[in-house]
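Structural biology now treats backbone shape like a language. To illustrate, our science desk offers a sequence and the tokens encoding its fold:
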Amino acid sequence: MTRNGLQSSGLADLPFDAVIIGAGINGAVSAAALSSRGLKVLIIDQGDFASMTSQQSSNLVWGGIKYLQSYEFWLVFKLCLARARLMKEYPNRIRKIGFLAALGPDAPFGPLLARFGTLAYWAIGLFTTPAPRTFSLRAALNLEPRFAPDALRGAVRYFDGMLPDNDSRFVWDFVRKAKSFGAQVHNYVRLDSAARVDGIWTLRVTDQISGAEHTVKSRSVINAAGPLVAEVLKSAKSQSKTGLVFSKGIHLVVQKLTEDDRVLAFWDEQKRLFYVIPMGDRSVVGTTDTRVTDPFEKVTDEDREFVLRQINRSMNLETPLTKESIISERCGVRSLVIDQGQSGESDDWHKLSRKHVIEVDAQQNILSIFGGKLTDCLNVGDEVVAHFKKMGFQVGKSKKWFGEGVGLMPPTFLQQVQSLCLSTESADRVAAGLWRRHGMQAQHIIDSTSHLLEEVFEGTGITYPEVSHIIHTEMVIKAEDVLRRRLPLAMLRSEGDIASNDKLQEILRVENLT
């Protein structure tokens, strides 16, 4: 599945049913859902797939417990159902994980209300996760000795889901699924202009790798550009009733902070939830919630200092974390939905939810997706299909456009991997990662190598044959596509570690990846 770039031949002859602008989670599920029903679909992104907001999340598949504080019970119910659906369809890629929340001085409630709230969360989610439990101060410290004991009143445990791999890997699964149904998928293709004449959209696009310009025709446009959705609407000369405001969230990756493989939850000095999330042999700390106007924000020293201050005051660490402790970092801009004309400025800024809104300009056949989050992605795909039916498109019978399509890892696969690894511990990591990320293709990866399955970095479960397989089959153009998005290597290890890995650098050099 190498990238050949856009080809002029045939692009402008017969119109697509839908051209999707933006290959984040919203665009990817739209492409998979529509192409599975026989529609002719093209999806493009000016960067790599999932290279904006969809690569910067907390990797959590959750029911939105924090929205109980703002009484958004219907939203929590929908997110809990979406979480349960995803966890059923992706038993390998998504796993159930416990959240242990420390009820410290900044928590907005004590153990009694925490117990009531988590029980309500469990019930709203129709009891699809293990039951929550509260812990006294002593029990909480016995369970997690790294909790800072100062003013700790206890803890509460509840359950949600998590992506062991990065969020952009999950987006790629939908892009690949759309391609299997016949969709044309292209990364590094920029939309330059869009005009509708006689009921057909004419879009001018540029292949940013080759520099070639192309004309594409389509009966409709799906605007899934995330934080840039307003820019696409402006280019298409279309109006909207929905507006967006932006919230910057950052995460810092550090050495693993706890022995147990669970999420620790705290309230920061702004009384907002932040987490310590396991990622392989590292911990991810965050997130922040800062009002911004630029969708291309970066991590600042102020951001780093804030997160480090929160974690140092919340955990009893042998050595406090400093800037030198940071292995990698990420910064994402969330799109929060407001009504057009509103500023979004209020005392409830932190309570704005991650709901999504789909708006259709029926006169021009342009559908725009505002806001949303990964947990709700299957609902977005279903709603897009429903809107296309209302728009008069001939929507065929659906094929299964989501789900892994494979069961749990067979023992024979693990045995084969064990025979190719130096240790049982390494084999367990490698086998689990290969099966989770590739399903049946994992067998091809190990069958195609006659060498030992050596981890690129010990503890990651990622081997050199897997890196080479991804480069050759998953439309990789730049080094960061494979190191940051198809795999989480650039988050698990520092730039210096990656640069000094001669074998990895040789693979990138041979494949001409920069």
User: Anything to note?
Assistant: The chain has three domains: 18-53+168-240+351-390, 55-164+244-343, 411-510. The domain at 55-164+244-343 is CATH 3.30.9.10 (D-Amino Acid Oxidase; Chain A, domain 2). DSSP finds 16 helices and 19 strands in the chain.
